[in-house]
Each structure stands twice: as C-alpha cells, then as structure tokens.
Amino acid sequence: MIRCQPIGVFDSGVGGFTVAREVFRQLPGEEILYFADTAHVPYGPRPADELVRFAFEIVTFLISEGAKLILVACNTSSSLALDLLQEHFSVPIVGVVNPGAEEAVSVSKNGRIGVLATEATIRKGAHAQRIFELKGRAKVFGQACPRFVPLVETGRYLGSEARQASREYLTPLLEKNIDTIILGCTHYPFLEPIIRDTIGKEIALVDPACQTVAQGKELIEKGIVSPRDPRLGKPRHRFYVSGDPQAFVRVGSPLIGGRLLTDVQQVCLDGILDRENQKVVIA
C-alpha cells in the first residue's frame, strides 16, 4: 500500500489559506493537512511563551498525522517559534517571515520598508532583523494592526470597519516615505483591496505566501522531501480546527472554496505533547 504524506500547513485561523492556495497553484499534485487554531485566534495579544507552546502542539499533531513538510503559515508563530521548531523536529519546517523580508528587500528601491503585522510579531522584530541582515542601511517601520485579524475571521474584511482601520494603520507608514509594505500576517492579503485603496498604486505590497511555498517546493525538487506519488490519485485535503468548525466553514468557504471544507474536524490538542512523548521545555 502506498502511503500518502501530506504537507502540513497551520495558522491561527483562515489566514493560512493564502499559503494553502499557493500550494494548490505551485504543487497541484500535493495534499495538504491544514490546522487552524481558531480556539485561540487572534494570536497577536497573547504572550510569547503561550504562542510557542501552541506551535509545538500543532506541529506535533501534524507530524502525528503523517506530515512530511510543515509550512508555518503564520507570521507570529514564525517570528516566535520557527527556530525552536526547526531545532526540535526532524521534519523540514518553513516559515513566512524570511521569504517576506527577502522579497521586500528585492523590490524596494529606496530601502524604506513598512511591516503590517500583529502586535506579537511587531514586538519580536523578526522582519526587521532579516531585512537588516540583507540590507544593513534599510529603514524598517513596523505597524501593529490588532483589528485586521478579527475583521477577517468574522468575514468583515471588505466593509467600512476595515476601511477605517486601514486608514488608521497605514497613515503613519505613508508619512515615512516607504515604497514597500510587507503584509506580515497571512490574514492581511484578504484585505489587499482595502489596503490598496488607502496607499495608492505606487507602493509595492509583498505577500510572502508565494515565496514561502516556493521554498517548500525547492525542498521537494531537491529530493529533501519526497513528492506525492501520483498513483494515489487526486489529492484529498484535510482541514482541522481547535474551535468551532461551522464558523470556520462559514468564513473560510468564500476564501478557499466551499467544496474543500465539507468535512472540517475539531480536535483538542491539550496534552498532545505528553501523549506523543514530546518532552519540550518552552521558556
């Protein structure tokens, strides 16, 4: 019997669909195993140690379900936990922060780059750190956007509240003469029409999803991760949540297609580190 090993993708909610859609586009023969930690969304206001623990629990679950590669489709988790996850687990793990920072450096002409992200991501400063490694004279301006994720998670990402929030968050960045903005949360590309209306056409918007999946694809092409056997037939994607499956389907269906969300399962990850013998000490 041929064993199917999916690509694990996780986020606090539906934001990771921006990465999942890129998997469908770049790796159409692969199968994804998606986990949305909707019981704990939004991640931004939560303390770092708690968010690191959530990431370890989710990755442990995805690997227990056979994931051969993990895409951390959450900038907050990537900022706080990626290095620890990569040190602890043998399965390849790719985050979204470095791909976004690297693309921003490549497209910015004046080296003045804005970062829209959650509070926790801005506090960590991982985007700025990577940008400075690549271009030491760059100027990076971070802007926390605490209302954006709840607006997406409740399906209100194109309404008047979103427009008001966009103006509030982007006006300070526009005053810094930036020419590039990183969408430093995977939820934010769903707000791109609103953001674009606020900033105009001249400023580049960087969505890290494409380059993140490209890095995962490279691991497959180099033979570090095995490709899915085509004899398995059409991919069967699986979706799991820690919160309410119905709410996830209601909000997520317009974003990724309702036909994919016909069998969303709720799972509780409390105690999974002990059950899977993952004795992790998280500071």
UniProtKB/TrEMBL annotation:
Domain of life: Bacteria
Binding site for substrate: 11-12, 43-44, 75-76, 186-187
Tagged with keyword Cell wall biogenesis/degradation: yes
SUPFAM superfamilies membership: Aspartate/glutamate racemase
Transmembrane intervals: none
Pathway of action: Cell wall biogenesis; peptidoglycan biosynthesis
Reaction it catalyzes: L-glutamate = D-glutamate
GO molecular function: glutamate racemase activity
Active site residues according to the UniProt entry: 74, 185
Gene Ontology annotations of biological process type: cell wall organization; peptidoglycan biosynthetic process; regulation of cell shape
EC number(s) stated in the UniProt entry for this protein: 5.1.1.3
Major enzyme class: isomerase
Keyword annotations from UniProtKB, A to Z: Cell shape, Cell wall biogenesis/degradation, Isomerase, Peptidoglycan synthesis
Function: Provides the (R)-glutamate required for cell wall biosynthesis.
UniProt family annotation: Belongs to the aspartate/glutamate racemases family.
Protein name, entry field: Glutamate racemase
Native organism: Heliobacterium mobile (Heliobacillus mobilis)
Gene name tied to this protein: murI
